[in-house]
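COURSE: Structural Biology Practicum
ASSIGNMENT: Worksheet 4, Part C
STUDENT ID: 0417
INSTRUCTIONS: Below are two proteins. For each, the amino acid sequence is given first, followed by its structure token string. Answer the questions at the end about the second protein only.

PROTEIN I
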Amino acid sequence: MDMQGMDHGMAMAPKSSHNCSMMMNHKRHGMMHMTFYWGKDALILFDDFPAGKTNMYVLALFVVFLMSVLIELLSHTRFIKPGSNRVAACLIQTVLHALRIGLAYLVMLALMSFNGGVFLVAVLGHALGFFVSTSAFKKSHQLDEPYDLPPMAC
């Protein structure tokens, strides 16, 4: 039986433009790193950022550092005074919690670039934020007490 001229419902699907654009993007950006590497040629949080430019890479590192410091400050600082309105205090705590979690997710996404510099500034930012919020500006009698890490609750 000759099957060359028969159509059996197995027509080739047209090539989608989505696949073509994915291939072009992959070629344009090169290989995505899955291990730590050093260098300014990283994509951090946004497409084409920092785009291999040294000044933009330094800016990206600075932003990740500031976000890490702010996460620690939000985690270890009490913003609500005793005796405050419960509803207002709850709303403030909720907003601060959402801000802290949002920043933490952004730092996590930046770390997924697997860039060694991003990793180092994130760790240093968390360390500095922890130092500033827990020990640097405490009164001397408060430092004599043993300090243990507080729970991560607001």
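PROTEIN II
(use this one for the questions)
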Amino acid sequence: MAEKQYVIFKLCGEEYGVEINHVQEITEYKKATKVPNVPSFIEGIINLRGNITPIVSLKKKFNLEEGEIQENNRIIIINLKNKHVGFIVDDASQVLTMEEKQIENPPELLTGIDRQYITGIGKVEEKIIILLDLEKILTEEEKEEIKNM
């Protein structure tokens, strides 16, 4: 039985997971510098150890209720076409190992673009964890905009 490890993070009280091998690092929240004329879900850019890193608000991208930035907010950094991109989450504090039998395909009611980035639904005890592919959350056009920032 194949096992995969997931970084578990929270958005608006719900738990999400992303495969650990897609994550470069998790860092504390840093206020982003605003950039004009970018999509509304891009918070701006930060300097991450000498690299200019665009920061995406997953709450804005998913049309979730935005709240104040808290002390436990984190930025999950992934490598997107050889460029680091950060995603702001409410909390990212756990790595979880799941077996294939604990993961179901996304429900049929998800259609279109949403289905592309939801890779599965993890079931751990009584909890449901929505598994995401952060690389597929952005459209090709959005990825190109970020690459050119």
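ANSWER KEY EXCERPT:
Q1: The chain has one domain: 3-147.
Q2: Helices lie at 58-61, 113-117, 140-147.
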